[in-house]
Amino acid sequence: MIKKNVVINGVPQTLLVDGEVTLADVLRGQLHMTGTKIGCGKAQCGACSVIVDGKVIRSCVTKMKRLADDAEITTIEGVGTKEHLHPLQLAWMIHGAAQCGFCSPGFIVSAKQLLEENVNPTREDVRNWFQKHRNACRCTGYKPLIDAVMEAARLLRGEVTIEELWCKLPENGQIWGTEYIRPSALAKVTGTWDFGADAGLKMPSGTLQLKLVQAKVSHANILSIDTSEAEKMPGVVKVITHKDVVGKNRITGLITFPTNKGDGWERPILCDKKVFQFGDAIAIVAADTAAHAQAAVEKVKVELELLPAYMSAPAAMAEDAIEIHPGTPNIYFETQMVKGEDTAPLLKAADAFVEDDFYVGRQPHLPIEPDVGFAFFDEEDKLIIHSKSIAIHLHQAMIAPGIGYDADKTILVQNPAGGTFGYKFSPTIEALLGVAAVATRQPVYLEFDYYQQTTYTGKRSPFFMNVKFGATKEGKLTAMETDWSVDHGPYSEFGDLVTMRGSQFIGAGYSIPNIRGNGRTVCTNHAWGSAFRGYGSPQSEFASEVLMDELAEKLGMDPFELRYKNVYRPGDTTPSGCEPDVYSMVEIMDKLKPAYTKAQEWAKQPASATNKKRGIGMSIGVYGSGLDGPDSSAVNAELTANGVTIYTSWEDHGQGADMGSLATAHEALRPLGVKPENIKLVMNDMARTPNSGPAGGSRSQVLVGNATRVACELLVKGVTKTDGTFRTYAEMIAEKLPVYFEGNWTAPAKECDVTTGQGNPFAVYMYGAFLSQVEVDITTGKTEVVKMTMVADVGKIANKLVVDGQLYGGMVQGIGLALSEDFEDLKKHIDLIGCGLPYVKDVPDNIDLLYVETYRPHGPFGAAGSGELPLTSPHASIINAIYNACGVRITHLPARPEKVLAGLKAKN
Ligand code: MCN
Ligand code: FES
Ligand code: FES
Fold it and tell me: How big is the chain by its Cα radius of gyration, in Å?
């Protein structure tokens, strides 16, 4: 123990601490100042930034013994409070800069010091500052953060007032379609939005700390697990293995299509017979402290018999490959595409024919907040599990049989989540928590470190694709053939569903009358495939959007013109053979045209250095809003003495479920004139909120939005008197009329037939186009994205700040997918930097968003979804721009510098 005198946020304090402990842990664990967050825990994300003696430092790696005596420390709690916000906090709210908000305290603290040193920074100064201090954000694409700092600087200089900047509502009080600030923003910018790890610190004493024993090999038979030594370690209460699991010890993958050859029960909660992938959970140590649990983890002995590890779809498909799940073939699901006439003769007769192979890999999600959760039994003996789940009702069904606890008594609650980007569409920590709670009958808490975040959770499923286009000499597509193999890792969870995306989205956006194709899902030993923003469309559309450029070259046509000729026009159908919900692609292209022409001029100018070459590229993006077929949702609305309460399971990754719910409910309640502050949101607790469905597939604004609208409309109808005026709450109660209304909505859609890929899977789609301008350094192969432009049609916009944020963030994830992100090498791809997370200087400050707002007949108040559109194909536009710049066509992502350089060398 050492004694430290410090001044924290102006208050002198004497601390008695372990000198080896970090400042972050002391602030959070000892002082309960949970505004400072811990993300990566290894100086890579800046979530833990605090100011010490006028310098921004990362407190997660600052040991207490290194802290100078009398150090003056400023944390987010000292920057501003809810009552007295710092201009940075106000600007963060005004610019929608806190999406999930996990990075916000770190960024705000960091920026405070910048503005103290320089109250008049340039945008580049701000970018350099965040780069230097490693402040990382996965949600916002950074631009809104720079906007916020610049605005805060203006506020500090007295050039503008808050009143001038604060969102203005129209006179009728409508918030739908405005830049109304999301309800959670205030808590997020003040560090008072309690994420899972913050709530974990507030658990009662006696809560057991859990740590995982993970597999360090990719495929093996388990011969024995010896926990005897671990059990004797200090503080250990129990070492839990498969033998302690009273249920089926499996998470069900919920087979979607009956032709799936698997049964969906292959994923162990705790490995029993086999290890299927690196990082699998073999045992859980429950102890009094996290340190004791971790020490005991090292003592668990696992004896293994190694098996061949199939680390890609082709490897697992090889003739001599053994079945990873004995009894189920490694290729466990197949689907075909049959649209129009036979394509073989058409391709043969085509004036122009192109064919290429494509690969989009195992993109890691890289939320700044690692996975975290806790579980306990309540007074009715219900097992309550808190996690980052974005599918609380679905996960209950997936994990309860495996845990062995009555599903009706297993209640999931979502904690505020620091980003998921889809990985939480799969259960991760939930079943581990459930098993540990049942085995110990005590409250349990489990947080992953970043290594576990990367090695335990699912990843984007790699697609190996071959695509062929045939076209007339005028450039009209006549036929397409596709073949795609989906590497879905060892667990089938929605593997069939993501494979269907190949039929639905290779070639999406274009009228292609004749299509044939074959797709398959392959079981492998690399990371299990979980949902990732865009879900199959970034893979599918990468292939067709790069091939469109190859076709344009073959035809000697401009890539824009070729696309313009082929995009959906009235009467055209999607690859699934149905009419899109609206025809807005032509308008989208028209809107992009001036930017495209300008970019062409830009590309002709000399690059920023003689060793660099400029290029431009475009792509179009289409994705559905909803789960396949007649997806449905439920939301309830209650009239109260204070206004209206909305009960909804619109899970929030950080995208803005609170804002979407509020804007939609407020719009539907407008006849009553309920003020936004009188609409209370009760969200994401199965004990209180109905099954609104998961927050995946960009479905919530449409599905949950419609259910919200229906519930509110029923409420309005319920309070309406015969003369058209409205009853008050008191009148409703006096007349014994119901004040609680259940809203349900089902999408008018039809699942695709797996043998033809034909159907009408989504009632609503999102449409867009991307334009990227790049400079490629031909001496290093490094690509810099200098500018991006996106035209988006997400229908009528519920909240402009939210949608702008969705687009910026998604596009920047597209830059990562194109150039740097991967999860392949199990030694290297284990943290944010190793996995290739884009930092602020890896992305352009110059991003233009343009909108086409086509009213959606099936969307609430005309809205489609927005979350995944920006990650459908931005990476394809970057890859096309690289080719345009230097003649190197990258078809196997990511386009890391060495790959581009190798291409340049091969060309020369
Ligand atoms: N919205 C709107 N107007 C529209 C359409 C949508 O204002 N016309 C708003 C909605 O109110 C919502 C947001 O845009 O706040 C996204 O809406 P929607 O597309 O319906 O998607 P969901 O709410 O179902 O969110 C999920 C979606 C997906 S699938 C992933 S993955 C994803 C994403 O959104 N992960 C995210 N966005 C993310 N954003 C952040 N910050 N973090 C993640 O993990
Ligand atoms: Fe400290 Fe990431 S830098 S938590
Ligand atoms: Fe930055 Fe989510 S808002 S990580």
Answer: 27
Here the tokens at position 18 are: 């372990």
Which residue has its alpha carbon closest to ligand 3 atom 1? 137
Smallest CA-to-CA distance from 435 within 215, 261, 271 is with 271
Q: Which residues pair with 213 in a beta bridge?
A: 283
β-strand partners of 6: 13, 71
Q: Residue 436: CB within 6 Å of ligand 3?
A: no
Ligand nearest to the CA of 866: 1
Rounded-to-integer distance, Cα 462 and Cα 798, Å: 33
- The three-state secondary structure class of 501 is helix
Find the helix packing angle between 87-94 and 143-157, rounded to 10°: 140
614 lines ligand 3 (CB under 6 A): no
In whole angstroms, give the CA distance from residue 77 to residue 213. Answer: 36
Percent of residues, the chain, with pLDDT higher than 90:
99
The model's confidence at residue 258, banded by pLDDT at 50, 70 and 90, is confident
pLDDT tens figures, 574-588: 999 999 999 999 999
Asked if 447 and 209 count as a contact pair (C-beta separation under 8 A), the reply is: no
* Distance from Cα 110 to the centre of ligand 2, integer Å: 13
| Dist. CA 823–CA 279, nearest whole Å | 13
- pLDDT-based confidence at 613, cuts 50/70/90? very high
The backbone region for 251, taken as left when phi is positive above 0, alpha when psi lies in -120 to 50, beta otherwise, is beta
CA-CA distance, 438 to 405, in Å (whole number)?
8
- CA dist., res. 201 & res. 481, Å (int): 55
Q: For residue 681, what are the β-bridge partners?
A: 646
Domains in the chain (CATH in brackets) are: 1-193 (1.10.150.120), 208-310+372-455 (3.90.1170.50), 585-621+764-908 (3.30.365.10), 632-746 (3.30.365.10)
How many angstroms does the Cα of residue 275 sit away from the middle of ligand 3? 34
**430 in active site:** no
Mean pLDDT of the chain, nearest integer:
97
Q: How far apart are CA 483 and CA 756, in angstroms?
A: 13
The dihedral through the CA atoms of 778, 783, 786, 787 has a sign that is positive
For residue 907, CA distances in Å to 609, 616, 778, 888 come to 21, 20, 12, 8
**What are 722-736's pLDDT values in tens digits?**
999 999 999 999 999
Cα 310 from Cα 219, distance rounded (Å) = 8
Beta bridge partners of 49: 58
Structure pTM? 0.98
Would you say the CB of residue 654 lies under 6 angstroms from ligand 3? yes
Ligand 3 atom at minimal distance to the Cα of residue 145: 1
